[in-house]
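Annex B, item 7. Sequence and structure tokens for protein A, then protein B.
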Amino acid sequence: MASSNLESQLQSAQKNILFLQQEHANTLKGLHAEIRRLQQHCTDLTYELTMKTSDQADRASRNSNSVDTSVPALAGVVHLNKKNTSDMTANHIYLEDSLEDEANSNRKQSIPTSARRNAKKPKRKRSTSRNNDFSVAKPKKKCK
């Protein structure tokens, strides 16, 4: 009788763990999609800022009769552009780190300590592309 109860509790716990792992995987997919969306938004804003800066520089050079008056204007635009880019980069890094910390926290909470200790982790490599997707390393093909 007691072993039957223990077996049903074990099966229930295993089902709960499987459910949590599936939810965790879905959450990670959503977080990665959000990171890609934010990266694209940052790229779009950088392009837009570059175009505005370029237009301002063109207007400044057309309006000024001498190089001496356009140089300070361009220096100001460059300084503003650097500051905006720096702020956007810092914000992007903060968001990415926050999402990664949250994902790691969720991962640790959803897997029991004994399962974490005994689990074999797949090797992951960071892609070199700009969207920072994570993928499982593929085994090398054996020659015949």
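Protein B:
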Amino acid sequence: VNMKKGEWVLIFIALVLRVLLFVFDFNETFGYRKEIVTPNTDFKRLVEGLFLVKLNLNPYAGDAFHQPPLLLALFYPIQSNPIIIRSIFVLVDLAIAFLLSDITKRWQQRNAKNLSTPEQKDRLSTLSRSNLSELVMFVYLFNPFTIFTCVAMSTVVFNNLAIVLAIFFCFRGNQTLMTFFVAAATYLTLYPFVLIFPLSNLLQKRNLFSNILFTCIWMAGLIGVSYQMFQDWNFLMESYGFNLMVSDLSPNIGIFWYFFTEVFKNYRNFYLFAYQYHAFMYAIPLYLRLRHHPMFLLWVNLAIMAAFKSYPSIGDIALQIAFVPLTFDKIRGNKYVFLVGIVSIFAMVLAPIFWLMWIYQGTGNANFYYAINLVTTVAQILFITDSLAVVLKDDYFSKKKQRTQVDGKKNQ
């Protein structure tokens, strides 16, 4: 990756910031925040799973551990060395920033080849002069959501790394590694499988069916290796079934937990389907409608995944925010950017306050915390729908202009 001087400065400052937060033990504070860690990304639960493996017990026999077996294999050799463990999380965060920089530059190069009108060329030159790769790195590395997620040692960073690696190899035209990392991300949190649609669009000269086939083969291989670790298929239900059935109703920033504490048991399966299908159902329609806007299509899928997965965290939101600058030329007519930004800040500040009032002081209740979760989700949905409206309206007027020009030439 060819790095500019400014990008190296950003990397250095981000590294120092994360190391200082670890030195002052902020990982202990952030590691208990429900907005940052979830039952299937909590490092403390991973440590519990490692302890059970050390005792020759099946970590999936109880209700403590709900992450895939290969994460256990990654951390088992280093479980007694906290410095190496913390270093891995910091290095993963910095690696994602490196990869985002390269993705940005390759996206700009691809755009430069496809631009034809003077307006489009002016738009590209504006983005180039503004050092877009540095902007993307800055947005990712210094987003509080990214910093908190890294320092809390949430395992969602490995999911984000797999997603970014899939995009990285997509731009390099490597179908094999692209589909492997889509499978790896799916193996970790299930929902990233939908990214095969936008990535197939970005990967030129490859068809969707072959990409899906390769991804499924890689996924089967990862699951097979996982089975060999414990000679038991129980991990499938305890990791993927856990995500789909929403077995743990611990509070988080999502919309599932409170609703499913209140819903009648007879209707639970129906509402599970009604809630879960939102994370998957839009993938094919959006792929068919937005095929000519590949980067925007990728961002929309990331944003939908962050909003509608069963156990979301601010780490999911941080990744999709990093891709917003790459879609700026598409969504700069968005009417609600300021409103969404203010509401998001408002929600993230109030969430820990409402948690304190509910759990520690007893002056509030679960409705307080869930209300602010709903505000967060609504803000994300508003931004997605408004951005889609801008792109579709731009498409409509572009086609109308083309038809007018064609009709004018015919009349001549």
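Comment on protein B: DSSP finds 22 helices and no strands in the chain.
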